[in-house]
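Why predict the complex rather than its parts? Because the way molecules touch one another can change local conformation, and only a joint prediction can capture that. The input here totals 746 residues.
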Amino acid sequence: MKLSRRTTIGATIATASILALVATGCSSSTGNNSAKPDTKTKITLTLATFNNFGYDDALLAEYHQLHPNITVVQNKAATSDAAETNLFTKLAAGSGLGDIEAVDGDWMPKVKQYATKFENLAAADNKGRFSAWKTAGGTASGKEIGLGTDIGPEAICYRADLFKKAGLPTDPAEVATLLSGDWDKYYAVGAQFAAKNTGAAWFDAAGATFQGLANQYANFFEKDDGSIVATTNPDVKAAFYSVLAASKTESSHLQEWSADWSKGMAKGAWATMLCPPWMLGSIQQNSPKVTDWQVADVFPNGGGNWGGSYLLVPSQGKHLAEAKQLVDWITAPAQQLKAFAVGGNFPSQVATYTSPDLLNATNKFFNNAPTGKIFVNRAKAFTFKPFKGIQYGAIMTVVQNGLTRVESGKQGVDASWAQVVSEIKALG
Amino acid sequence: MTTSTLRVKPRTPRRIAFSQQVGRWDIKFSPYLYISPFFILFAVVGLFPLLYTGWVSLHHWDLIAGEGPWVGFDNFSFVLGQQQFWIALRNTFSIFLLSAVPQIVFALLIAAVLDTNLRGRTFWRMSVLLPYIIMPVAVALIFGQLFGDKYGLINGILGHVGIPPIGWHTDAFSSQVAIATMVNFRWTGYNALILLAGMQAIPRDLYESAAIDGAGRVRRFFSITIPQLRPTLIFVIITATIGGLQIFDEPRLYDQYGTGGADHQWLTLTIYLYNLGWGQLDFGRAAAVAWLLFLIIVIIGLINLAITRRIASNEGRI
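Output of the joint prediction:
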């Protein structure tokens, strides 16, 4: 018998349906906000994160020293997707989540629908800790269920060697001047670059570039009331068409996060890419032998934020007061600076932006670029909060698929857009 | 005294009657009792979820929030009205045929070879099982290196020969061939071992007398081995069908997103189910797909059984 294949799906359906039954019956929520942390008994708190949050053993040991009765264990999921599946499955089950769960900003809207299943984390000492848009992203109908960890203010990363080959300036300051302007400016320089036939493309993929554009509008896919406007909003269609127009000559057509994309990065398949701080780690990991990466303090059309996460305390946990205390501590500016030093996770805490620890930070791999100063500037360039509703992730997937279809030569732009529209309508 | 004998007499037959009754129960019911653990277990982990999924499919049902209002067959009509469902159905059958058919043919050939007097028999038999032990994730990683569109090994080799690269992640058929290859890699050896076990049970004197009558190797294979393998073959084909129609791991791991491709090139029914249930958190619609898939498998299983029976019994008359 083909046990594995049968049981995987069979078991999934079986457990899920049983779990759903359990969930309806016994979703207990002990929302006791006034509970004082217990300091007498020894307990273990589980902190579920994904990728790399920059929380190393030293940081967790430090908390253990401050609270000798509390041991913190971190469970790391490999990817944001894995963490998402895990969170929703166990939320449905009504048990099994960590005392603290990390949630990616991109699927936070989906989680916010179930705000009743999480604790309110608003406290006197964390008020005003984050920029306003970050706090708003973690708040569901007045209840602050998530405290921010990092944010993703975007800059431009580029390959100095390829710039030199194309006769463009290579110094970060000069590149910043060269690229300052709107997206048309970015594409125009790209056309100039492409005309030199260096063998490399200007940017990695239409999908990645589209992410940069999408994060610059207040209501790109959805209105504040959650109604979907993606198919009628002229900005979406314009962005879709303009990215694909540039993509013809300027993109490497390698879909983001694919195996080819990772290899393309090592082989110098493109010269520039949109670069939130967490992307630096990804670049270093994928192209460790390349010595010519640089970061320029510039971003088309001002600023943009891509990514960044929150920490939440699920109400199903056993040690709610202690968990809240830990979230409060670990998202405080001092701890976030340590996480930045370890994992490069750029702080969402406004107080850190004046800290010398952050401002003097440099990145060795990016030729000692003053990444601290650059990303503080990029964070300041980004002031408003784009609305992301429940369907944001699903719509983004549909649009990204549409971009990929055109880039892979499967469809023309018009046919692809028509399919995007019909698929978004089917989401309702 | 008559009274005392009378008192004793009716008692004794009653006692005999009872023990006889117990004995009769023992004969009648104990076989059922012995096989009941399987059926009790099946009722709990098989039948109940199946019926419960049916219940879920008739409701608006959110993965987290749980049961919503009764919607009748709305979930089914929604799913059947979606183009994606039909694409998924097509892909499922296509991947199933691309994997099941070569899988069984090759498994049969490998088993026939292993059934001969090879040197180091155990070594060869264990090696065909090796791919089965490898985790699907690892298989996907290995084949991901082979089937890269731009920097993959296969397209690299084709490029040297001067053949244009194959769109492993863009073209529907190519992507399905790639996925079927992964499936075949994992399951062929496993099926071969099951068929081998069946072959070993065939009486050797059949072959001997056929050989004396002048039948060659090929003739013996088709006239003795295959008809004698009938029950094993039916088992292998039916499990391959069920497995093939529920294929999930390989298409899910085929690219970085696991949602079936930009143009749904390798979106199978189980992936579609997963996208609905865990992507859009709509458990009612996911349950409707699960039930449709169940019905499809039952129908295909019955057709399968009829055909296999027929073929095997026609050839079975020696």
